[in-house]
């Protein structure tokens, strides 16, 4: 292995190790006063706990919404003069999300 490759691997390794994975958000709140200047407080907000059952229910609801829209709008693919795919809908307003 050449010296240049070793240096590149070392730089890549250091870059990956120097970035930290954060499991929270940083929120800064600042207040300004003409007498006291500005005062800022920093707080850390933990990520919400994942609920797999709720995520599954949300996915089912999203799928049902998509199927309802497809049944109402009946999208069909067409190609324009330049070969770009365009969708044509059976009803007006479907390009804006109308589903009933």
UniProtKB/TrEMBL annotation:
**Signal sequence region:** 1-23
Source taxon at top rank = Bacteria
Instruction: Write out the entry's keywords from A to Z.
Output: Signal
Protein name per its UniProtKB record: YARHG domain-containing protein
